[in-house]
Amino acid sequence: MAVNISAADRHARMPARSGQLRRKLQDPTLQGLMLLAPAVLAYAVFAFYPMIDVIQLSFMKWNGLNADKHWVGLDNYRYVLHDDPVFWVALKNTLIWTFLSVIFPPLIGFGLALGLNQNIPGRSPLRALFYMPVIIAPIAVATMWRWMFDPFFGLFNSLLSAAGWPNLIQDWLGDRNVALYSVFIAYVWEVAGFSMVLFLAGLQGVSQTLVEAARIDGAGRLQLFRYVTLPALRPTITIVLILSLINSLKAFDIVYGMTGGGPAQSTQMLAMWAYTQAMQLGDFGRGSAISVVLLLITVAIVIPYLRWTLKRQEAYQ
């Protein structure tokens, strides 16, 4: 009889326990943590752990092949900052590249977004056309533009010759004075469509109620743009500038595919010089040290900008 009562008690308690579990699973905090867990795990395995490993390697001497890693302390950083002349050239080129990247691709993308947000014929095909360079493999973009910049058979020199301007013909990728800017033109063509898509999404999120109210109050096109569109686009502008900044600081593939850092290191970048030190010269310690310096530069630029933009957004709200 006791056994039967105990079994009955267990059967009576099962619905209560399942109800408690169901209520716990319906908790928004728990649901959010469950949805975030796979992404956090993937980030920890494929991003956070390699970053910690690179920081650790920056204090060691290792050629990438032997099992032995020798602790050298700050020697790698001392060499990079004091004895490596290419590092400072790469740093200067990276800063120039970053400065140009937060101006021209976002401006061009913003202009394209404003135009393609209007009700014009062929709007959808044009959006796809301008976005297409973003999805092309960067090494393919580099190969195409390297051919167009060819000093003998390239498109640009052929057009200049046909137009009767032979004095403007250049060795676009062989002249150290213009090589960096020639590669940057190809980079702008590749990434401007990405800014365009983000700005298009922001423009389509502008409240039409505010637009109509401003029109009723007599606002013109410039006033609408200044007092309605731009304030609504502040979050989008922040995202575009931060992504442009981060992508420019880690510029590698298109430069590697077009010039390989030449001529005479005139297009060398920090990310590519870190790769060269580690994978080509076999010094993973120095390559990791350059990567850590690049990480610190990125953090030193991005975090203050984020804090400044957040304060501005709070002030406007």
What are the main properties of this structure?
317 residues, mainly alpha, MetI-like fold, two-stranded antiparallel sheet, 75% helix, transmembrane
User: In angstroms, what separates the terminal alpha carbons?
Assistant: 70 Å
Helix and strand run: HHEEHHHHHHHHHHHHH
The H-level CATH homologous superfamily, spelled out, is: MetI-like
The appropriate CATH architecture is: Orthogonal Bundle
Shape: flat
**Unreliable residue runs:** none
Estimate the strand proportion: under 5%
CATH fold node name: MetI-like fold
Integer average pLDDT: 88
Largest sheet: 2 strands, antiparallel
Q: What is the CATH domain class?
A: Mainly Alpha
In spatial order, strands of the major sheet run 1-2
Helix/strand/pairing class, anyone? mainly alpha
From the alpha carbons, calculate the radius of gyration and give it in angstroms.
Answer: 27 Å
Provide the number of structural domains. Answer: 1
Number of alpha- plus pi-helical segments: 15
| Helix percentage range | over 70%
Number of strands: 2
Task: Describe the protein.
- With 317 residues, this protein is an all-alpha fold.
- It has a single domain (69-313), classed as MetI-like fold (Orthogonal Bundle), CATH 1.10.3720.
- It is 75% helix and 1% strand.
- The protein has helices at 2-25, 28-57, 75-83, 85-101, 104-116, 123-135, 138-148, 155-162, 179-204, 208-216, 221-232, 234-249, 253-258, 270-280, 284-316; strands at residues 60-61, 70-71.
- A two-stranded antiparallel sheet has the order 1-2.
- A hairpin with an 8-residue loop joins β1 (60-61) and β2 (70-71).
- α5 packs parallel to α9 (179-204).
- The longest helix has 33 residues, at 284-316.
- The chain is flat.
- The model has no long low-confidence stretch (mean pLDDT 88).
